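Margin note from the TA: students keep mixing up input and output lines. Inputs are the sequences; the output is the structure of the whole complex. Example:
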Amino acid sequence: MTRKQRRFLNIGMVGAVLAIAATLVAVALRDEIVFFHFPTDIIVEKKAAPGQRIRIGGLVEIDSVVREGTQVSFTVTDGENSLPVVYEGSLPDLFEEGQGVIAEGALQTDLKFKADKVLAKHDENYIPRELEDLLKEKNVWQGSKK
Amino acid sequence: MIAELGHYALILALAFSLVQSVVPLVGVRYRDASLMISASVTAVIAFLAVAFSFAALTDAYVSSDFSVLNVWQNSHTLKPTIFKISGVWGNHEGSMLLWILVLSLFSALVAIFAKNLPGTLKALVLVVQGWLLSTFLLFILLTSNPFERLIPPPLEGRDLNPILQDIGLAIHPPLLYFGYVGFSLTFSFALAALISGRIDGAWARFVRPWALIAWISLTVGIAMGSYWAYYELGWGGWWFWDPVENASFMPWLLGTALIHSTLVMEKRDALKIWTILLAILTFSFALLGTFLVRSGVLTSVHSFASDPTRGVFILAILVVFIGGSLALFALRATTLKPGGLFQSISREGALVFNNLILATATATVLVGTLYPLVLEAINGTKISVGPPYFNLTFGPLMIPLLIAMPLGPLMSWKRSDLMPVLARLYFVAGLSLAAALIVASMTYGGPVLSVLAVGLAFWVMLGALCELAERSGKKGTPLKTRMARLTGLPRTVWGSACAHFGVGLLVLGIVGATAFDEELLAQLKPGETMNAAGYELTHEGLGVRKGPNYEEEVVRITVRKNGELIARLEPAKRVYQARKSTTTEAAIKTSFLTQLYVSPGETFPDQSAVIHVWWKPLVVLIWFGPVVMAIGGLISFSDRRLRVGVPTKALKKGQPANA
Amino acid sequence: MDFWILIFLLTSIIAAFLVLLPVVGGKKLNVEIDHDKALYKNRLLEIDQDEKLGRLDADEAEVARVQEARKLLVLGQTSAGRFSPSGAKFSHVLLIASALFVFIFTVGFYISTATYSPSFRSFVSKQEPADLSVSGLLRAAESRLAMNSNDVRGWKVLAPIYLSLGQPEKGVAAFRQAVALSDQDPDLRAALGEALVVLANGQVSDEALQQFQQVISIDADNDLARYYIGLASAQNGQGDLAIEAWQEILDSKPENEQWVSFLTKRIASVEKEKTLSLMPELNNETVEAANELDKSERLEMINGMVASLAERLSENPDDMQGWERLIRSYIVLGRKSDALAAIQNAKSQFASRDEFIAKLEKIESELQ
C-alpha cells in the first residue's frame, strides 16, 4: 500500500464511522423523539393520533385522583381543557393534586390517555419547563416561590 | 464572626489567584525563577484560604447558625450531623464553594508534588489555574456569596430537600467535582503547552496521572450517582439519560478518550494535536456539565432567566474559557510538529479507533441533550429525547468499540497484522460464544440481541485476561516463568487489563438488568402473598417509625423462596416534617449479583398496600464494573514509571519490548 | 475596634508577605526552569534508577547518558539566547507590588461588598460601634430596609419584633408594607390583622375584622383569621358564633397541638363567660351595688332583674337571645319550674325555628 492509499483508507474509515453515526442520529431524531402536548392541543387541535407516543402535561385536577388497587386515574388540565389519564404503577413522591405533572404514554381510541410513565416536579421550586410556559401563559400558576 | 472570616478568606484567595494569574507569566517571559516560583506559593496559600472558607461554612452548618442565609435555606437543627455537612454542597452557593475548593486543591497539589515538572511548564500550568480560580472566585463573590447574613436569625431552618438527605448524595457530588475539576489540570496543561509551544511525549507523561485521577473520580462518582438514583428515586431505574446525567457522562467519555490518546502521545510522540484538543474539550464539557446544569439551562430555560446576573456570568465564563482556549488552539496547533507515523493496523491505530468512537458517541449524546433546547428555540416545538434515542445512536456505536477492545492491547506499536492477533483470540472468541449459547439455552425464547451482548461482555472480559496470559509468555512457557513475568509486568498493563475487564462486567450487568429482569405490581392485603421471579412476598402489615427529622410508614414484607424465609424487607414512605415532603425508600435484597427491589406504593384504609417489585439479575455489576474500572485506573496511576517517565525505547537494547 | 478586625488586618499583612517568599527562598529551591534541561535531568535520574533496579547494566546506562547529553546539546544550541534573564531587582519590585496589591485588594473588596458586619461597617464609617442587642439589631435592620424598602422579607422579619418590643404601631406599619409588597399573601394579611388587634389592646377592631374577612375570601382555611373572626363575635356578645367558628377550626384537625389546646381553652372560657353573661346584664354600677349587699339581698336584686327581663319578654317576645338568657338565668337560680315554663313559652314563640327548638329541647332534656 502506498502512503496515499493508506491515507485514503484512514480518512475513509473515519468518514464511515461518522456517516453511520450521523445516519443513526438522523433516524433517531425522526422516530424516537416524543412530542409534548397540553390537553387543549389534543382535545381541540387534535395534534396527536391515538397510539402515537407522546407526553402530556398540565396540573392534576383537584379531587380527580382515583385509586383502584394498582391502577390510578386522574385528570390533567391546562386551565381550558382536561384529559383523563389512566396509569398503572407507583406515582412519584411529589405527585399531588393541584400540582404540575407530565405523563408519557399514548392516547387511546376513547380519548383517554394511557400513561406508562408519570413525572412530577423534582422539588418545590422545579416545574418542567414545558409546563411553566403554559401555566404562566394561562395564569394558572404564579411562578416558583423562592 | 466565623462566617465573616470565611467570606474574607475567599477574597484573600481571590487576591492571591489574581497575582498567580499574572506574575508567573511575567516570570516566564523574562525567564525569572523567583517570579515563576511565586506561582507555587500563591497556589498553596489560595488553597489554604479557600479551605478555611469552606471550613467556616461547614461550621455554620454544623452549628445550625441560621443567621447565615444559606444555612437557613438548606438546614434544620433536627438534621443528622452527616447531612448537615453534606447540606453544605446540597445547594448552589455551597456546591460552587466545593467546586472552587477542589480547583484550588488541584493547583496546590501541582505546586507541591509536581517536582520534576520543568519550571516554565509548571508556572504556565499554575497561571492558567489562576485564571480559572480567580474567575470562579469572582463568580461566587459577586453572585453567589454563601456567607450572606440574615438578621435577625430565624429560630429554625427550612431543611434540605429530603431527597438529598442520603449518604449516597453526601459523597457523590464531591467525587463528581473531583472528576470535573481534575480535568481542569489537563486543560491547564494543554493551554500551557500551547502558550509555550513545547509539546512532546514528556508532556503526555506529566498530564496522564492527573487525567487518571480525574477519570477515576468521575467513574466512581457517576456510578455512585447512578446507584443513588436507583435506590432513592424508587423506580428501579439506574440510568435515565436525563440532561444532568448526560452532562457528567460526556466529560467521562472524552476523558476516557484522553487517557487513551495520552498513551499514544507518551509512547510514540504521535497524535499531539488531537490530544491537546481532547484535553481542552474534556474540561469544556466538564464546565458545561457543572454550570449548565447548575444554572438550570438544561432542565429549564426559565430558571436561567430567573437570576439573570448569574446566568449571564456563567455564559460569559463558558464563552471566554471554551472559546478562548479553542481560539488559542486554532492559532497554535498548526505550528506543532507532527509526531511518529504509524499504520492503521497497529496499537496506535486501535487507540485512534477508540478515540474516534468515543468522540462520536459524545457527539451523539450532545445532540440528544441539546436538540430539545434548539428545536424549542427555533420553532417552539416541545419535545423530549429519551432512552429510545440513545439506545439507537449510542448503543450501536459501542458494539465496534467492544469488539475492538481485546484486539488493541495485543497489537504492537507502529505496525501490526490483524491475523496473528485474531489467532491469539480464537480461544476467547470460542468461550464467549459458548457463554452466549449457554445464556440462550437458559433463557430460551429470550431476546436475541441480549444474548449477543452477553457474548460481547465475555469477549471483553476474557480478552482482558487473554492479554495478561499472552504477556506472560508464548505457548509452552513454564508456569513459574509465567508467574514471574506477570508480576514483573508494568502496572499500566495490569491497570488497563483490569479496567477493560470492568467494562465487560458493566456490559454484563446492563444486559442482565435490562433484558432479563422481571417487574410486578400488586395490591396486597395484610397476609396476602404475591409471587415474583420465584420468590413469595408476603405483606405482614403496616407500621410507623420515627426518624430524627422524619416519620415513615413502613410496609413489612417477608420474602420466601420455596417456603424458606430469605429476608424481611421494610420499604417505606417517608414524610419529612420541615418541608412536608415525602420520599420513597425502596428496600433491596441483594443475593450475590442479583437484587430484589421492592418499592412501596399507595396504602389503603384496609391496611392493604400497593407493592412494586423488580427482580434484576446481575444488576450489581452495573456499579461493580465501574469500581473495577476505577481500580484499574488506580493500578495504572500507581505505576512509578508513569510519574517519572520512561527512557526512550531505543535505549533499551536487549530488553523485552513491553509497553 | 473589634479584635477580629485586627485579625483581618493581620492576616492580610501576613498573607501579603507570603507573596514575597520566593524573594527569600527562590535561590535555595533550585528549580530548573529550562524545559529541556529539566527533562534531561529527569531522564538521568531514571537511568540511574533503572541501573539500580537492574533494568539496565552499567554499559547500557552509560550509553544512555551520553545519548541524552548529546540530545541536550543539540537542543541547547537552538534554544540558547532566546531570552535574556532579568535582574533580581525587577522581580523583587514586582513581588513587593503584588504583596501590596493583595493587601489593598482584599481590604478594599471586603469593605465594598461585605453584606453584614456591623462592627466592620461602623469601623469603616466611623460611627458608634453597633451593639448586638435586640434594639441594635433592630436599628441595623431598619437602616437596611430604609435602603431597600421593597424587601418583603425584611418587613416580614421586622414586624413581629416590633410587636414583641411593645411597639404595635410600628408593627402594624411594617405588616402593612409587607402585605402591600407581598401581593396579597393571606398569611401576612392575617398577621397584619393580628397586629391591629394587639394595637387595639386585644379588641378586634372593624379594620382588623375587615382584614380577616379579606384573608378568608382568599384562603378560606386560614386558621388565624378564622380564630379572630370568632373572637370578634365573642367580643360582640355572640359567644355562640365564636364557639361555632372555633369548633370548626378544631374540626379541621390542625396539627399544632398548642393551637388545639389553646382553642379548647378559649372555647371553654367563652362557654363559661356565656353562662355568666346570661345572668342579667350587670353593669359596673349594679355590680358595685351588688357587692355592697349581703348574699340574700344580692339574690333578691338578681331575682328582681330576672323578673324585669321576663316582663320585657312578655311585652316583646321576639327576642330569641333574651329567652335563652332568661331560661339559663332560671336554671342558674335553681328555679326549675320557671325555666321549664319559659322553655314552653319560647317554643311556642319560635315554632318555626327548628334550630332554636332543638337547642331548647336539649336544655329541657338536661333539666329533666
